[in-house]
């Protein structure tokens, strides 16, 4: 009897550790990143091969989408702040993305394809802020899943999307890219509707214009401005890699789409391992320190990539994704959460994406497209060193400042 009671006690304790709300948010995040794995690496190839985009036109649509996010981000955030349920922006953006993908399938005119590609690039990137905020808000260190595990599994879902799309391309051609995006986006929409309701109780609801102004005013905080623009520029250094990396590997190294997908995926696996295994053990490290490490990792990575490494060295360099992206990302997310707390983090995330990441990516995408069309090949990675160097300088300035007071203690 004592043994039975002990087992029952253990089962009760185990059940308490399962966070259902966080698990549903993790499912939505995993489906999003599975779709994102197809979007980042393969959607540009689909536009080039199936819709006749040139490298400059591809860079232009991604650049304009970045500019569009500068406007759409604050507006979406202000609209979301007025909703009674925090799930609302995720459901809306997923629905728009799915409709745009469906419309793009039937479009044949370049102008129409350009417009729908623009919408997809805006809405997909806009979802990141709300999904990341949901994970940060709902995950608890002593429950399953914690943030590191949830975010790491989402990164692995990116790997699945990346590799699966490459396998579909080898099996059925470029049409597999569209099918993967459509099916995973439909799954994301369904998962967003399954997320637990998160009602927001507000005694007084400020008008839309006030919510928009309050969001934009967040940039006046010096620590937030340095974080935003520093990390935004470091992350923007990935644009040449994201847009043209896979195509260059296939063309220059003569490898299959499946192998190219696995090489890309290896970098994301390093990202996931960093978030799942290392991040929980470095809670004590300042966010600014993580950003600085990420900046120097990015400088090393793109400098090596610009030399046109062969296959063995290329695989090793891909491991630096754990620094150039994951370390920078973790520092930014922890820094934003520390500065603004649960209530304002979604708005701060969107301001970061819209006012810093989006314009930096827009500029880097346009530069990447122009550089790619010159035919320099992998040497084009050198063009990404300039924005990364500026971003690293900004986060160094943040690192030199005293640790800011946490939002909860302010």
UniProtKB/TrEMBL annotation:
GO terms for cellular component: plasma membrane. The chain crosses the membrane at residues 25-48, 60-80, 92-110, 116-136, 148-171, 177-197, 224-243, 255-278, 285-304, 310-332, 352-372, 378-399. It comes from the Bacteria. Residues 31-374 form the Major facilitator superfamily associated domain. It is found in: Cell inner membrane. Keywords: Cell inner membrane, Cell membrane, Membrane, Transmembrane, Transmembrane helix, Transport. It is a multi-pass membrane protein. GO terms for molecular function: lactose binding; lactose:proton symporter activity. It holds the Pfam family MFS_1_like. PANTHER family: 3-PHENYLPROPIONIC ACID TRANSPORTER-RELATED, BLL5896 PROTEIN. This is MFS transporter.
